[in-house]
Amino acid sequence: MTQRTETGLYFDAERRELQARDREMIPTRLVLAMAGLALASLALVSFAVLTERPAVGAPHAAAQVAERQMILSGNGVAARAATPDGRVLMDAENGGFIAVVTSGLDRARVKARVEDNPPVTLTRFANGRLRLSDPATGWSTELTSFGAGNALAWTALFEK
C-alpha cells in the first residue's frame, strides 16, 4: 500500500469518498425491520390457522343465475370468443381484459398439459359476481375482482 503525503483538498475528498463506499450497503436497521415484518406476518398467519379463523376474502355464496359455455382464443392482444358450435360472440384485435384472462387460461392449460382448446364456463351469480372456470384444468377466476369496467366486458358476452 502506498502512503500518501498529500494533505490537499483533493486527497481529503477522496478519503471521504472511500469511507462512504466502505460502509455497509444495506443499513442494519433496515435488515432488522425486514426481519420483523417477516416474523409479524408469520405470527399473524399462525394465529389465523391455529384459531381456525374463517376465510373472509372468499366471495359470498350466491345462486347461479346464468351460465354460458364458450371457446376462448387469443394471442395476448387479440381475443376471440365463440360458442362450442362455432357462433362468434366476440372477435377483437384489441381484446383488453378478455385477452389478459385468455393468456392466464392458456398458461394454466400449458401447466396442466391440455393440448386442445376445450370450452370454458362463464357463470353469473345472483349477487352480480362473474366467474370463468375451465373444467379441463380446474382453473377459475373471479372476474368481478378486477373492477366493474373489466367485468362489463364479460357481461356483454351473455347478451350476445
From TrEMBL:
Entry-linked InterPro entries: PuhC (IPR017495)
Domain of life from the UniProt record: Bacteria
Keywords (A to Z) from UniProt: Membrane, Transmembrane, Transmembrane helix
Transmembrane stretches, start-end: 30-50
Keyword Transmembrane helix on entry: yes
NCBIfam families (UniProt xref): photo_alph_chp1 (TIGR03054)
Entry protein name: Putative photosynthetic complex assembly protein
